[in-house]
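Team,

Forwarding the record for the chain on the shared tracking sheet. I've put the sequence and predicted structure together so nobody has to dig through attachments.
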Amino acid sequence: MYRFQRYAPIDPAIYADPHPDRSGPPLSQGFVLVLINTVAAEYCHPDTLAFLDQVNPTAWYHGQNFETILNYFEAQDPTLPTEIGKNIYYTMRSQFAAMGIKTPTDVIQTIPPMWQHVTRGDSGVWRDTLVAPGSARLEVEQPYNCLFEQGAIQGALEAFDASNVQIVHSQCMRQGAPYCVFDISWNE
């Protein structure tokens, strides 16, 4: 799996969609960058805002851009990546519903293929296990800021009326684990 630097200069180059090819650098869909601009512009450095203002939502950008931006947020406030992920994915109910998602359980089961859809290149994998009604475990082996991903999971679940969402990040790649583990519980 590709590894990012914590911080690197923003690269505005647009990449061709490699379709199902999982080799090469991880790419992020411009749509997610546009959403970051929408929900977190006030936390962005002027150079980052200049880049985000030019992003084409249907284009692909090097994933390092996404990682650099998330790490700058984390440096400002360690809770920012989680809150930004939560706010972005909470607002996407209609897009998720168009994909056939109707319940929080559907969210959990759809996360691995959704991850494959919004990233390209050697960007890792997500594995889901439903443990019991209202309880799941996600094993996340990917190079992006896991705090953002934790927030994204919470926001997506809450978008489908899950309440009392609890996420325990019980194992973390940033702490040397082979993959992150999110133990999740919620009420439907």
